[in-house]
Amino acid sequence: MTEFELMELLDVGMKEIRSAISFISEATSPPCQSARSLLEKKVENEHLSGHLPTHLKGLDDTLCGGIPFGVLTELVGPPGIGKSQFCMKLALSASFPVAYGGLDGRVIYIDVESKFSSRRVIEMGLESFPEVFHLKGMAQEMAGRILVLRPTSLANFTESIQELKNSILQNQVKLLVIDSMTALLSGENKPGAQRQPQLGWHISFLKSLAEFSRIPIVVTNQVRSQNRDETSQYSFQAKVKDEFKDNTKTYDSHLVAALGINWAHAVTIRLVLEAKSGQRIIKVAKSPMSPPLAFPFHITSAGISLLSDNGTELKGPGINTIHARGHSDMINFHGDCS
């Protein structure tokens, strides 16, 4: 309403109206804060913050300690690149004793695609932390701290995560993994436009759950082929649209993350796993605490291992493109998941 409409409605003078608007504006507008005051506030609330170590030194240094608490972290990449392996290693780390770099807590692992393997987790533990896992009964105890849920539908998943909010704090849960969100939505027989309201609700709920519980939430995301006539997701990518068309027949195919731009904005950390020129690479594509960096890695019996702790800084549209060597005709999730 205008000031004159308020005068008529409330039957008061202009002076009172302007005074009331000024008072309400001051009460509802957030005060300005300096970088110093934000830092002091962060130090005061340090007990509410923290990181889950990945035990990949270069990546942990880049992320200031590992996967941060209280936000959504996304792993995105083509099938078979190592996303689930990464998640299983994180689950192991969260269940580990604090003295050995873990969080000494329980883990809820929502295994949508039935890729979780207890045997693989124990193998990673024996190879990565032999001094702990060879202790009597330790392997069974660590595996027992990881609760695996396998929802059969999106409705079943929605019901499960709503129940989690009340049990996370009571049961000392220190990590929530969803592997993968895309598979849940892909199983719904609805066009992409009709899935967006469902995805929007889940984005809001997961973000609020992370903030409420102050634990790391890690979600995997799949990829889809970038349509040749598709408009760029980001304005700075428009300049390379023609170049992309010229290179679509090369041996390395260009993919984009599924779930769309709204999901991309919702996640705080995006880690891209890709295969380029015969080499697996993990990219810190989105992070408020570091520049975009790329680390070569391989997968061993101990899990994911970096070939170098020194990341290579990335620039331009290559930050968001995803390479999958030799999969240009095999991987196509189309646009209905985005």
Automatic annotation (TrEMBL):
Keywords: ATP-binding, Nucleotide-binding. The keyword Calcium does not apply. Transmembrane segments: none annotated. GO terms for biological process: double-strand break repair via homologous recombination. Gene3D superfamilies: P-loop containing nucleotide triphosphate hydrolases. One of its GO terms (molecular function) is ATP binding. This is DNA repair (Rad51) family protein. Residues 48-223 form the RecA family profile domain. Pfam families: Rad51. InterPro entries: AAA+_ATPase (IPR003593), DNA_recomb/repair_RecA-like (IPR016467), P-loop_NTPase (IPR027417), Rad51_C (IPR013632), RAD51B (IPR030548), RecA_ATP-bd (IPR020588). GO terms for cellular component: Rad51B-Rad51C-Rad51D-XRCC2 complex.
